[in-house]
Amino acid sequence: MRCLLSVLLLVSSAAWAQVLPSWNEGDAKTRVVAFVQAVTDEKGKDYVPPAARIAVFDNDGTLWAEQPLYFQLVFMLEQVKAAAPKHPEWQDNPAFKALMAHDQKELMKMSHRPLLALVGIANSGTTVEAYDLAIRDWLATAQHPKFKRPYTDLVFQPMQELLAYLRENGFKTFIVSGGSVEFMRPWAEKAYGIPAEQIIGSQQQVEYKVRNGKPVLVRESKFAFVDDGPGKPVGIYRSIGRRPVAAFGNSDGDLQMLQFTAAGEGRRLALIVHHDDAEREFAYDRQSHIGKLDKAWDEAKANNWIVVSMKSDWKRIFAFEK
Amino acid sequence: MRCLLSVLLLVSSAAWAQVLPSWNEGDAKTRVVAFVQAVTDEKGKDYVPPAARIAVFDNDGTLWAEQPLYFQLVFMLEQVKAAAPKHPEWQDNPAFKALMAHDQKELMKMSHRPLLALVGIANSGTTVEAYDLAIRDWLATAQHPKFKRPYTDLVFQPMQELLAYLRENGFKTFIVSGGSVEFMRPWAEKAYGIPAEQIIGSQQQVEYKVRNGKPVLVRESKFAFVDDGPGKPVGIYRSIGRRPVAAFGNSDGDLQMLQFTAAGEGRRLALIVHHDDAEREFAYDRQSHIGKLDKAWDEAKANNWIVVSMKSDWKRIFAFEK
Questions:
Q1: Running DSSP on this structure, what letter comes out for residue A127?
Q2: Cα–chain-centroid distance for residue B124?
């Protein structure tokens, strides 16, 4: 009997060591694990039944890298360039001119609107299947400028472990991203274990048409929904219909999703990933054009949300690290 | 050994008898079962891996009754009446006048637009939680005029069995309804085993606001998305991101969803429920204002889709039948 007990203790401490192995022991990991234990303890006061265990994750900067430019934007801008010969009217468009001149400074000064307008037009008229193929083709060959690797290698290993850990504990995991659903669907299931139907994102309008007797969905130039900032709780309401119990983000675009989640009744988890590791990844926050973390950081401090330091809380960032 | 074999055969024939028990033996049941066996047979040419086993169901008229008036419309029109004192400007509105006069004929002559406009205004300004409560309250007390029972009793028993049968065979089941998501979420999980996040429907605009320091979602008067007719494949694309392998409907509003599903590569199932049982439920098709089945019926015949006769294919329609 004593022997059995020893074995059980051994197994359980081994299991503990295996939880979130790429996370250093410390406040962030301890609080995440404590939250999961509390909401899954059927006899505890914080118990949450499995159906309500909804966890939402921002993608860019939270589950994978986003510097020096959102990866989807790199793809989209290449699509704009490729479509340029069919659009002579773009030659006088300031956004197009800045883009062709690689005038990063000018591009940063602009609002996103004129760029998104070009992007929308560049991809309109094609079927959703053709667009999906274009994304897959690009992802198969494009390389990140700093890491010289496919973009899909740049998913954060500790977050992959966190997703798996939550699912093992009965959570349903969703992506809620400012990026478009189409761009995530081809690789998110393999990378994160999140199927297409659990990805919420921005949406370009599509229209149902019958072409050569075959029903197809054709992309239009307008955006139907922008899933960013205050759009994130709206996207969650539309697609999930419940207030999540846990939310994970990294920038001001996630602020309302974190607020909306944290304001629910009962125990909640709100976590922000802070990019403070210039050596292994990138270091940026309040002053950054991409993934700006300013208001959400203040709010995190004021409300005691978990702020993860990539530098000190994560043993490794990418799976390809030694 | 022979004994074991007999037992196995017995078990397997008992299991067969238990499949879709409220369905009469016949062409419809045989074809549904043959489809499920084909796509789940790992060695067969029609095999579909579990992740791609997406089945989509219309709600009104397919999973529950819809006559003499869509149940949600009954609720909404009561909401309009309740909001009338706050909207003196409605007194000159033809749709409102017809509604208050119970002028069914005049209402049927109108397009849905002026009625939906009233509905949108009647429910705007409240939080989504308050709206959810109003729906639950109404469902708890309202009774169907013919059956004198709560509307939620009017779910079709054979379709509940079909949903469960598909899920037992690895399918993920979704509702894709012209009705609004909010109206289905409070009861669909219990009635159909379909969670809130697998319900696609029409959407009124909601906006994120902070009221008294608490983040809430507030309903606006405009519709953000109408999930009917050609909107259904669009809703499927947005929320699921894959072409379903099986689709179930009952009216012309489901035509494009059925076409879109049937046109996919590999084996597909398209099924229409035909309301031809005036005694046990209602009988209506080509001439009906509610749940009109005309073009979709022709298409079903032309393409050999399954057409279920409620009268002859279903042993019983409702669970409360003797």
A1: B
A2: 25
Q: Does B263 touch chain A (CB under 8 A)?
A: yes
Q: How far apart are CA A88 and CA A94, in angstroms?
A: 13
Token pair for A134: 């274009």
Pairing of strands A306-309, A214-225: unpaired
Q: Which residues contact A214 (CB under 8 A, 6 or more apart)?
A: B263
**If you count residue pairs, one on A and one on B, with CB atoms under 8 Å apart, how many are there?**
89
- Could you tell me the two tokens for B166? 């598909």
Nearest to A62 by CA among A242, A205, A232: A232
Instruction: Note whether A260 contacts B: Cβ–Cβ < 8 A.
Output: yes
- Mutation for B interface: A56, A204, A237, most B CBs within 10 A: A237
Q: Which residues in chain B are closer than 8 Å to A263, comparing Cβ atoms?
A: 214-215
Contact A198 B198 (CB under 8 A): no
**What is the tens place of the pLDDT at every residue in A223-278?**
899 999 999 999 999 999 999 999 999 999 999 999 999 999 999 999 999 999 99
DSSP B146: T
ω into residue B68 within 30 of 0, thus cis?
A: yes
Which of B197, B225, B238 is the closest to A240 by Cβ? B197
Summarised one tens digit per residue, pLDDT across range B127-154 is 999 999 999 999 999 999 999 999 999 9
Q: Which of B199, B207, B259 sits opposite A241 (nearest CB)?
A: B199
Q: pLDDT (tens digit, 9 = 90+) per residue, A122-142?
A: 989 999 999 999 999 999 999
Contact in structure between A194 and A172 (CB atoms under 8 Å): no
Which residue stretches of chain B have pLDDT < 70?
1-17
Give the three-state DSSP class for A100.
helix
- A295 in Cβ contact with A230 (< 8 Å): no
Question: What is the distance between the alpha carbons of residues A8 and A33, in angstroms, rounded to a whole number?
Answer: 20
Taking the CA of residue A224 and the nearest CA in chain B, the distance in Å comes to: 9
Distance of CA B142 to the CA centre of its chain: 19
Q: How far apart are CA A257 and CA A255, in angstroms?
A: 6
**Residue B9 neighbours by CB distance under 10 Å:** 10
Q: Does A241 touch chain B (CB under 8 A)?
A: yes
Shortest CB distance from A256 goes to which of B197, B199, B208?
A: B208
- Considering only the C-alpha atoms of chain A, give the largest distance between any 2 of them, rounded to a whole number of Å: 82
What's the CA gap between B171 and B54, in Å, rounded?
Answer: 6
- Chain A residues with CB under 8 Å of B233 CB are 208, 215, 217
d(CA A76, CA A90): 16
Instruction: Please say whether the beta carbons of A254 and B299 come within 8 A.
Output: no
Q: Is the peptide bond before B50 cis (omega within 30 degrees of 0)?
A: no
Chain B contact for A85 (CB, 8 A cutoff): no
DSSP string for A8-55: HHHHHHHHHHHSSTTBPSSHHHHHHHHHHHHHH-TTSTT---GGG-EE
> Tokens in use for A93?
């468009």
| Dihedral sign of CA atoms A166, B40, B237, B183 in order | negative
DSSP string, B68-81: SS-HHHHHHHHHHH
